[in-house]
Automatic annotation (TrEMBL):
It comes from Pseudonocardia asaccharolytica DSM 44247 = NBRC 16224. GO terms for molecular function: 2 iron, 2 sulfur cluster binding; metal ion binding; monooxygenase activity; oxidoreductase activity, acting on paired donors, with incorporation or reduction of molecular oxygen. Keywords: 2Fe-2S, Iron, Iron-sulfur, Metal-binding, Oxidoreductase. SUPFAM superfamilies: Bet v1-like (SSF55961), ISP domain (SSF50022). The keyword Metal-binding applies. The keyword Iron-sulfur applies. It comes from the Bacteria. Residues 20-132 form the Rieske domain. PROSITE patterns: RIESKE (PS51296). This is Rieske domain-containing protein.
Amino acid sequence: MSAALRELALEDERIWTRAWVCVGVEQQIPGLGDLLPATVGHHGLHVQRGPDGGLRAGFNVLQYGSCWTIPAQCGHGHKTNCPYVSCAHSLDTDAVAADDGVPTRQMRQFIGFNPQKLADVPVRTVGPLIFVTLADPPPLEEQLGALGAAAAALGGLRHVARFWAELDCNWKLAGDALFEALGAPPRSGRLVERLAAGTDVPGTMRGRPRAADAGAPLAPDDGGVRLWRAFPNVVLVCAPDHAATVVVKPTRIDGVALVISLFARRGDAAGGVVEEGADEEAAALAAGWRAVAREARARSRSARMGDGSPILTHARSLLGG
């Protein structure tokens, strides 16, 4: 086994199975029965909206899809594009919608025909963010630090858009690429950044009222932009007129997928998650954040494991390196 694959196995043992891991936002599964695929380390999980409107998380019934063992092409640390997305070695998809509350055929690879027999996984929410854990980790509030209180305040905002993006770096460096793309100092090593008022953030809705005029709940008092990140895989951004959550999902040793969800004040969009172009302001917001994602990807290509990221530093302490 290569050194890189040994490190992946160690990360699964000491990080992904021992921490609260962010897997998405509640708005991805708004309807009863909707299901969110959630790979955590080497384990295939899902989160589903129950009949009572609450969330239930569990292990997938088909951990390796239709395979009895892990095929050679799936054991090299690079998640594959497989029709069995319940497999822990395949790429996650976005949420799977139920058919008027009834499980679809695709859902059966996650929940089977008797979901009550599946092993449950602890699940919690903080604001819109969904977290699961496979062990007995420290309290979620302790793990999230300042990001937890900021995320909890997102309840007054409306989810207006969501899209996926990619970075070409290890998951431990993804937060650095995002912070720098948004204007934070390179390699600052901080979990929280405050950017000065007037910082040109591409995702900002041009012409909207500033925080002092409209009472945006999370923007700094000076009308600037605040950035948070928390171990192992979540980033939160608050501008005067909107907020964004970013869930980092490892897809290969040197690559990640980002699930970027955008939130605005309740009067800022027509309603719901908008289709591209359906609401001019929300579409402009999404376009701005796609520019952020492109800049982050460009920066991620020059990221180095020795750059001193706080996420990297904490991961190394857990891995014994």
